[in-house]
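**User:** Once you have settled down, spend some time on the protein underneath, comparing sequence with structure tokens, and judge whether sequence predicts the tokens.
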Amino acid sequence: MTAAEYYDSTPAEIGMKVEVYNRKQQQHHDEIITTAYLSAYYNRVKKMPKLQELLSPKEKPKAAEQASALLSKLKEMNAQLGGEIY
């Protein structure tokens, strides 16, 4: 935060920025501790788990999104084949 931003901010805004900064620092600290812990653990484990089990799961499209995409594709195919939409 520059001096100009500091003097233009209200005390509440400064307090919010400090809270955000502290939260980011805590998350960074937790990441470092987690990395150190897991490194020590994996040095001692006899059988390594698969990497895909350790990584965060990728988000799958929701059923409603899949259904709407399928419906639009079916309507497009129906139009190409000269069918009628009811």
The mean pLDDT is 84. DSSP finds four helices and no strands in the chain. Residues 5 and 37 are 39 Å apart (CA to CA). The radius of gyration is 26 Å.
